[in-house]
């Protein structure tokens, strides 16, 4: 293998590794975050939860204000667009 080819491969590998670094960092950060209190969080914080986003976060806050606090994760299914799969994915990231 020529010196120029080795340099190109090294640069390519470095580029790939640097591209993957933010992904690994965000996953580590998600694992280190404290659970979010569904009954106290505002829409902006709720929107950071996986599978929620801004519109569902707003709907959670509106439902909470209209129907009272959530007692468990299953209560989130009273919000349109939040089903069992979403609730299962949030189980370790939320608290009440």
Automatic annotation (TrEMBL):
Every Helix-hairpin-helix DNA-binding motif class domain range: 44-63, 74-93
Name by which UniProt lists this protein: Competence protein ComEA
Keywords attached to this entry: Signal
GO molecular function annotations of the record: DNA binding
NCBIfam families: competence protein ComEA helix-hairpin-helix repeat region
Species this chain originates from: Halomonas saccharevitans
Pfam families on file: HHH_3
Source organism, top-level taxon: Bacteria
Gene3D superfamilies according to UniProt: AF1531-like domain
């Amino acid at each position: 293998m020529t010196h120029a080819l080795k340099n190109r491969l090294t640069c390519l590998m470095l580029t790939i590794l640097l591209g993957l670094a933010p992904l690994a960092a965000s996953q580590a950060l998600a694992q280190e975050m404290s659970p979010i209190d569904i009954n106290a969080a505002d829409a902006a914080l709720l929107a950071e939860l996986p599978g929620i986003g801004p519109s569902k976060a707003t709907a959670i806050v509106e439902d909470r204000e209209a129907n009272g606090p959530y007692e468990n994760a299953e209560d989130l299914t009273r919000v349109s667009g939040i089903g069992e799969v979403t609730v299962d994915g949030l189980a370790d990231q939320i608290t009440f």
